[in-house]
């Protein structure tokens, strides 16, 4: 197994990690492994921007829009004034 060293960790952050680890009945080292594992597993599930926007607003519900029938063919945009 690989090992890492985390330098320059704030004392307050270390104290919070100790408290959270104790509340879960784990060592600080095991708690750090769990936190890293959870963060990285969420990272892979994020999806693209559209998926993330959809998931954020899914609870609000959708909107039923009535789209007008297209009668003309699509044409290229003209940027001439």
From TrEMBL:
Superkingdom of source: Bacteria
Keywords: DNA-binding
GO molecular function terms listed in the Swiss-Prot or TrEMBL record: DNA binding
Organism this protein belongs to: Ectopseudomonas khazarica
This protein's name: Arc family DNA-binding protein
Domain named Antitoxin FitA-like ribbon-helix-helix: residues: 2-40
